[in-house]
Design brief:
Chain lengths: 124, 439
């Protein structure tokens, strides 16, 4: 699971949970894979993500690098920043671990990089 | 403009004979009209062709520029005529292949068919989408470089491969844990067990497009795990129709089930049938909520041909049907590739949620959170936009039809076997009696 994906996941469908966002991460195995840097894509993605959630997740995984606390202005021209955020969004992957619902504490296991967001029949 | 076009250029192309009787093998002349050109040609025995000269250049780009300046006139006069390209040479011979190379300015993507062939693909399932059709599906979304594309019923990820080939970043979700982890029985007849590293990600790697693979998640479509304000450029999918893959969602028919904590870790949630009309309704609602404006959702929709009418096509107030192509599957059923484009934002309630969702991003103070939680609560009430879906008993119709045919076929086969047996007995009797008479 990449951190871009983590940024888009929620546990709002657990019974009784209202927002279910952001999901906490507990990682046992983290992998870094090189991914082609595509600045246009990153620029397009930045407004879609919750930056503070990304920062917290990257911090937890030890890959926050030189990412600042807030999105700087004129990101299009800030290649250094784009490269940093590219690394955090696409290159850092949780291979094994858990996603944890912030409200109910329900754990969603990540196995072989694939999060299992299924609820059990008594939770739906 | 008309002054400028009074003369047309013509190319006189002479035969390579009696060379001293002409100025050069080619001669560009300006003539008033085609009539004049015809008159000249009618008297010249050394002229091979008189050709209207549209453009003249030593390279392709120069030719292009010249052609474009007179494009309007050319297009209007030759719009409805067919054409043929001839490559001719002077003082040099081209092989047929060289000529074709000159004609073929660009290739189609037929080569993708071979490249993406299921036969060589690492990870496939029983219902992996044909590569040609997946490319067509993705094209229907107008997928382009840097888009985010989601397949909510991803299976083995065939559609994602085509999407990634066109430069899109791909996401997938599927309810089936075993499929995404490649723990189902292998689909190849020659393969006894799945290889350890089979996965959607491995396929992406095989085709060198792993940079465009984001993630797949195990998730029940009816209990979407995507946050409400996640915006997607296109959705493209082949949902299960209940024929070769079952249509299921998490649930139980039992009353008050509870799973203890020790069991929870290894528990495989039970599934119940998910009626097709509900699936399509949910798909359109999901698309309307998550697509960007003008974004498209493309999916297959099974129909029973005898009873199908266009009123059965899914309808949604925020989505407009822009294409509908039929693939006939059997004498009684077909599937339609439907393409919808988002034309309207979902009603105010969803807008509020998107607004608060983005506002929520800006703040992290607890008190505000609670206020927003309240709004989210309002938003998350079950909501039923007017959305109509047809055929609710596709599966029954499909199997009934097949059942009947099966019975007919069985009866016919049975009769055939009886007939063959009678004939064989007759032959045996005949040979026995002829042997008798011979002895």
């Amino acid at each position: 699971m990449k951190l871009l994906t983590h940024n888009m996941l929620s546990s709002k469908n657990v019974k009784g949970v209202i927002v279910g966002y952001p999901l906490k991460i507990e990682a046992f195995d983290v992998k870094v894979t090189e991914v082609e840097f595509n600045p246009e894509f990153i620029v397009k993605v930045i407004p879609k993500i919750d930056y503070s959630v990304l920062i917290r997740a990257a911090e937890y995984l030890g890959h926050v690098g030189k990412l600042p606390g807030h999105v700087p202005e004129n990101v299009e021209k800030n290649t250094d920043f784009l490269k940093e955020i590219h690394h955090a969004l696409l290159e850092v992957e949780v291979v094994k671990g858990d996603l944890i619902c912030p409200e109910s504490g329900r754990r969603f296991p990540i196995t072989d990089g694939i999060p299992n967001m299924l609820l059990n029949e008594d939770e739906v | 403009m008309s002054q400028k076009l009074r003369y047309k250029n013509y190319l006189l192309w002479f035969a390579q004979e009696h060379v001293n009787f002409r100025v050069a093998p080619f001669w560009v002349v300006q003539l008033d009209s085609e009539d004049d050109a015809r008159k000249i040609a009618s008297r010249s025995i050394l002229v091979r062709y008189v050709i209207e000269l549209w453009a003249f250049s030593t390279d392709l780009s120069g030719l292009n520029v010249q052609l474009q300046t007179q494009e309007v006139e050319l297009v209007s006069t030759h719009m409805s005529s067919t054409f043929k390209i001839i490559v001719e040479t002077f003082g040099k011979h081209f092989t047929q292949k060289e000529k074709i190379d000159k004609i073929e300015i660009t290739d189609g993507q037929r080569n993708l068919m071979k490249e993406l062939s299921l036969k060589q693909r690492k990870f496939i399932g029983n219902t992996s989408m044909d590569p040609q059709l997946s490319v067509i599906m993705v094209n229907q979304t107008k997928a382009k470089e840097g888009d985010i594309i989601l397949d909510p019923f991803v299976g083995t990820g065939s559609v994602l491969i085509s999407a990634a080939k066109f430069g899109a970043y791909t996401l997938g979700a599927d309810i089936d844990y075993q499929t995404l982890h490649a723990r189902t029985r292998p689909s190849r007849i020659t393969q006894k067990v799945r290889e350890k590293d089979e996965s959607v990600a491995a396929n992406m790697k095989q085709y060198g497009i792993q940079d465009r693979y984001l993630d797949v998640i195990v998730s029940d479509f009816t209990k979407s795990a995507w946050r409400p304000c996640f915006q997607i450029d296109a959705i493209v999918t082949d949902p299960p129709y209940g024929i070769r893959e079952s249509v299921e969602k998490i649930g139980t028919t039992k009353d008050s089930v509870s799973i203890s904590e020790e069991q929870a870790d290894s528990h495989i949630p039970s599934k119940v049938d998910y009626a097709l009309p509900h699936l399509f309704k949910d798909l359109l609602n999901f698309a309307a909520a998550h697509l960007k404006m003008d974004g498209r959702v493309v999916f297959w929709f099974p129909i029973f041909r005898k009873t199908f009418t266009s009123e059965q096509l899914p309808v949604h107030p925020c989505l407009e049907l822009v294409a509908n192509s039929e693939q006939v599957l059997s004498s009684h059923s077909s599937r339609l590739l439907l393409t919808y484009e988002k034309t309207k934002e979902v009603e105010v309630r969803f807008l509020i949620s998107t607004f608060f969702c983005s506002f929520y991003q800006l703040t992290s103070t607890r008190i505000l959170n609670h206020i927003f939680l309240f709004f989210f609560h309002i938003q998350s009430q079950p909501d039923d936009p007017p959305c109509v879906i047809g055929e609710d008993n596709f599966r029954e119709l499909f199997f009934n039809e097949r059942e009947e045919k099966r019975k007919v076929r069985r009866a016919r086969k049975c009769e055939e076997r009886a007939r063959m047996k009678r004939e064989w007995e007759k032959r045996v009797m005949a040979s026995v009696s002829s042997e008798d008479s011979a002895s």
